[in-house]
Amino acid sequence: MRKTTALRVAAAATAALLTATACSSQRGQDAQDTTAGGACKGQQTTGITDKTIKLGGIYPLSGPASAYGTISKGVAAYFSHVNDEGGIDGRKVEFVVRDDGYQPPKAVEEARRLVEQEKVFAVFQTLGTPSTAAVWDYLNKQKVPQPFVATGASAWGTGDQHPWTIGWQPNYVAEARVYAKYLKDARPKAKVAVLYQNDDFGKDLLGGFKKAVAGSGVKVVAEESYEVTDPSVSAQVASLARSKADVLLDVTTPKFGSQALAADAKNTKWNPLHIVNNVASSAAVLKPVGFKNVQGVVSATYFKDPADPQWATDPEMKAYKDALHTYAPDADPANQFNAYGWAVASSLHQALDTMKCPTREGLRDAVRSLKDVKVRMLLPGVTMSTGHGDAFPLETMQLMRFKGERWRLFGEPVDTRKEFGPAAK
C-alpha cells in the first residue's frame, strides 16, 4: 500500500490535550475493558452494554478547517433522534466529541483519551487525512474500530495492514475520475490549472486526476499548492491565471475554497470553468463569495442537498430538519456538512444493525461486509458495498452545477467501480 512521508510523520505525532464533549457521559476511569461470552467469547465489549453504545469522534472544532466542525452536530442530532425512538437495537448512543484543531499531534492525544479514559466502543469519524493518518496505527494496535473516517483518501481502502479502519465517502481518486470523465466528454481539449492542498488529501485527488486524463486531450498545464497554515491562496490563483488554462480544478478545504473562488471571481480577465472538490462545495463555503460570483461552478456529490427543493417532501430530509431544529437549533439545516453528519451516522446505524456479535470485532467485520445497503440520505442509486479487497463503501457520485442560490444535479450517477475498476493501490 502507498505510504507517503506525510503519513509516516502524522502517525508518529503526539501533543497536548484539547477537549470538548458533545454530551455528558460516564467517565472512562469508571468503565472497564470487558469481553463477551457465548458464541462471541473473547471478543471485546468495551464501550457497549445491553443498554448503551459509547462512541467517540474527533473533529476540527477550531483551527483552519473549523467549518467541518458542524458535521459533529449532524451526527449528534441523528443519535439523539434515534435515542428518542428507542436507540439502536435498544441501546442508547453516547457520542463524545473531541477537538483536534486539524492538527495531527492533537488528534493522537484525543484518540488516546477516547480509548484509554472514555473507553469508547469505537472512534467513529476522525476528520481529515492528516489526523486520520496520525491515529490509525494506534487504533489498529489497540484493536479499536475506526469506522467511516471523514476523509476520502484512497489509503483507507487499499491494503490489509489496518483492518480496523475504513472510509465512507467516495475516495479522492474516484472523485477525480468523475471530473476527468466529465472533461473528456464535455471539453476534450481542456487545459487544466490545479490548486491543491499540499498534503495527502490534495496529492491523492491530483494524482487520481492526472492518471484518469492520461492519454486524452485533457492536459494539466499548471499546478500550485498551499499549506494549511497559509493566510491566503490569492497568490497561487494569480499564478494559475497566467497559465491561461480554461479549467481550474480546486482541491481545497472550505476556508481555502472560499478564498480561491473569491480570487477567481475578482480576476475578470480569466474565466475558467471552476471545478471545486466535494469537501469544499457546501453552500456555506460559496455564500461568503456571493452567489452571483459562483454561477456555473461544478462539483460532485453523493447525498441529498438539504437546500434542493426536490427533497422538500422527502421523509428522511424532513426527519433530518426536524431533528436538527430540536437537538441543534444553532445549526443551519441547509448546510451540507450537517446533512453529511446525519448521513454518515445513519450509515453507522445500518452497520451496527448487521453485527453478528455486539463487539468491536463484530463492528469491524460488519463494515467490511456491506452489500448494497441503502441509506435514506444518500442520492437515489447510491448504496454502500464493501467486500474482500474493496473497503470503499461509497463509489458512486453525480455531478452538480451551481445555479441561482443552490446546486443542481446534472447527468447520470457515475458508478466509478463499474466505470474505472478498483481505485489504484
Verbal overview:
This protein is of the alpha/beta class. The chain has 13 helices and eleven strands. The strands form three sheets. It has a four-stranded parallel beta sheet with strand order 5-4-6-7, sandwiched between helices. Strand 9 and strand 10 form a beta hairpin. The longest helix has 18 residues, at 336-353. It starts with a helix and ends in a 5-residue tail after the last helix. Residues 1-30 have low confidence and may be disordered.
Order of helices and strands: HEHEHEHHEHEHEHEHEHHHEEEH
Helix fraction bin: 25-40%
Strand order of the largest sheet: 5-4-6-7
- Beta strand %: 5-15%
Looking at the structure, what is the overall shape?
Answer: globular
- SS elements, strand count: 11
Radius of gyration computed on alpha carbons: 21 Å
Features:
disordered N terminus; 4-stranded antiparallel sheet; 425 residues; 11 strands; 4-stranded parallel sheet; 13 helices; alpha/beta
Brief rundown of the structure:
By secondary structure, the chain is α/β, with parallel strands linked by helices.
Write the SSE topology.
Layout: H1 5-11, E1 52-59, H2 71-84, E2 92-99, H3 104-117, E3 122-126, H4 129-142, H5 172-186, E4 191-197, H6 200-213, E5 219-226, H7 234-241, E6 247-251, H8 254-266, E7 273-276, H9 283-286, E8 298-301, H10 315-327, H11 336-353, H12 360-366, E9 396-403, E10 406-409, E11 414-415, H13 416-420
Parallel strand pairs: 1-2, 1-3, 4-5, 4-6, 6-7
Antiparallel strand pairs: 8-9, 9-10, 9-11
Helix pairs in contact: 1-4, 2-10, 2-11, 3-4, 5-6, 7-8
